[in-house]
Design brief:
Low-confidence stretches: 1-32
Number of strands: 9
Mean pLDDT: 78
Largest sheet: 4 strands, antiparallel
Number of helices: 11
C-alpha cells in the first residue's frame, strides 16, 4: 500500500470520528488525542517524502536557494533577444509603448516587465486575392474564401472573376501595432472594397482586355489614400492584376468571342501590311515618273534655249561676214556628214557619165 493510500485511509477514519455523538472534532474525542494524531501524521509524511531525497528532506533554506536560482535563470533567459536585419523591435513596458529597437542583440527587463514585438519593416509583404501561393506563412496572405473575393460586377452589369495581388511594406510599426486592430485583415477589406469600386466603373471588355493598367493605377492611389486615412502604418507599393476571366457558365462563349476578335485583328493587320507594301511602292513610282517628266521638260527647254542662243550667235556673226560665215558653216556641216558616208562619189561637171567611177569589183565582194 502506498503512502498516498495510507493518508487517504487515515483521512477517512478521522472524518468518521468527527461525526461522533459528542462532536469533539476530526482529531479524536478530546484534546489529548488530537495532538498525538497530528504528530503521528507529520512523522509519517516526513518518512514518505524523505524517500525522494537520499540525504534526507531538504531544509527551507535549500528550497529558497533553489527557487532563487531558478528565478534568476528564467530572468536571464528572458532578458535578451535578437532583432533580424530586416526588422525592428517595438518595446512595451507593462503594456505601454517605450521605444523602437534597431536590429541586433539587445536586453530588456525580464519576467514579463518588457515585451518585445518583432516587426519586419524592410520586408515587402503581399496579399493574394483569389488564389494561393504554396509556402505562404502569413495567415492574412491567402484568401479564406477566394471565390467570393473574385466575383465582381462590372459597370455594364456583367460578371467577372478578378484575381490580384497587393504588395506593401510596414512604414510605421507603432501605428501598425496599436492604431488599428488587425491591420492585415483591415488591408484585405480595404483592398477588396477599392477593387470592387474600380471594376464597377468599367465595362467587362475594359476589365478583361484594355483597361488593366488603368485599373491597377487607380486602385493603387485609392488604397494608399485609405491606408493613410486609417493610420494603418502601411505603405502600399504596387497592385497587380493577375487572371481576369468571365464566369464559368459563359467562359466558353466568351473565349469564342475573343477568338473571333483576334481573327478580326489578324485580318486587319494583314490588310494593313499589304496596304503598307503596295501603296508606298505606287507612291514611289508616281514620284519617280513625275521627277523623270520634270527632268525631261527641263532638258528640252534647256536644249531649245541653247539652240536658239546658238542660232542667234550665228546670225550675228553671219551679218558681220556673210561669206566667211557661210563657208565655215558649210565646212562644219561636211565634217559632221562625211564621216557617216561609207563610199563617196565626187562628180565632175565635165564628166559625161558616172559609170567609170563605180568600183564594181568591191560591190561584188560585198554581196552575199
Amino acid at each position: 500500500m502506498t503512502w498516498a493510500h495510507q493518508l487517504l485511509t487515515r483521512g477517512n477514519a478521522m472524518t468518521s470520528e468527527s461525526t461522533g455523538p459528542d462532536n469533539s472534532g476530526p482529531w479524536g474525542n478530546g484534546p489529548q488525542n488530537r495532538s498525538s494524531d497530528i504528530d503521528a501524521f507529520m512523522r509519517q509524511g516526513r518518512q514518505h517524502f524523505g524517500g525522494l531525497f537520499p540525504g534526507g528532506p531538504p531544509s527551507v533554506r535549500g528550497l529558497l536557494i533553489a527557487a532563487a536560482i531558478a528565478v534568476a535563470g528564467i530572468g536571464i533567459w528572458s532578458s535578451y533577444y535578437t532583432v533580424p536585419s530586416d526588422s525592428v523591435a517595438v518595446i512595451q513596458r507593462f503594456g505601454k509603448y517605450v521605444a523602437d529597437v534597431p536590429p541586433g542583440l539587445h536586453f530588456k527587463f525580464p519576467m514579463g516587465i518588457d515585451a518585445a514585438t518583432i516587426v519586419p519593416v524592410k520586408r515587402q509583404l503581399k496579399q493574394e486575392f483569389g488564389f494561393t501561393t504554396p509556402g505562404g506563412n502569413d495567415p492574412y496572405q491567402s484568401p479564406t474564401d477566394g471565390r467570393r473575393e473574385t466575383e465582381m460586377v462590372t459597370g455594364d452589369l456583367n460578371a467577372a472573376l478578378v484575381e490580384w495581388v497587393v504588395q506593401y511594406r510596414i512604414s510605421d510599426p507603432v501605428k501598425f501595432l496599436f492604431e488599428v486592430r488587425e491591420p492585415a485583415a483591415t488591408l484585405r477589406y480595404v483592398s477588396e472594397s477599392v477593387m470592387r469600386e474600380v471594376v464597377g466603373d468599367r465595362t467587362v471588355d475594359e476589365v478583361i482586355t484594355i483597361g488593366r493598367q488603368e485599373i491597377e493605377s487607380e486602385a493603387l492611389l485609392k488604397m494608399q489614400a485609405l491606408a493613410t486615412k486609417y493610420a494603418m502604418g502601411i505603405s502600399i507599393d504596387q497592385v497587380q492584376l493577375k487572371n481576369i476571366n468571365p464566369p464559368e457558365p459563359v467562359q466558353s462563349s466568351f473565349n469564342e468571342v475573343n477568338q473571333a476578335q483576334q481573327e478580326k485583328e489578324r485580318l486587319i493587320n494583314e490588310a494593313r501590311r499589304e496596304y503598307n507594301k503596295v501603296i508606298p511602292l505606287a507612291e514611289g513610282e508616281k514620284d519617280q515618273r513625275i521627277r523623270e517628266a520634270d527632268g525631261y521638260r527641263l532638258k528640252r527647254i534647256n536644249e531649245a534655249e541653247g539652240d536658239a542662243a546658238r542660232f542667234t550667235a550665228l546670225l550675228t556673226e553671219y551679218q558681220k561676214a556673210p561669206d566667211v560665215t557661210r563657208r565655215r558653216i558649210y565646212i562644219e556641216t561636211l565634217q559632221d556628214v562625211m564621216p557617216a558616208i561609207g563610199s563617196k562619189i565626187i562628180v565632175d561637171g565635165s564628166t559625161g557619165s558616172i559609170l567609170p567611177l563605180l568600183n564594181l569589183d568591191r560591190q561584188k565582194e560585198n554581196q552575199p
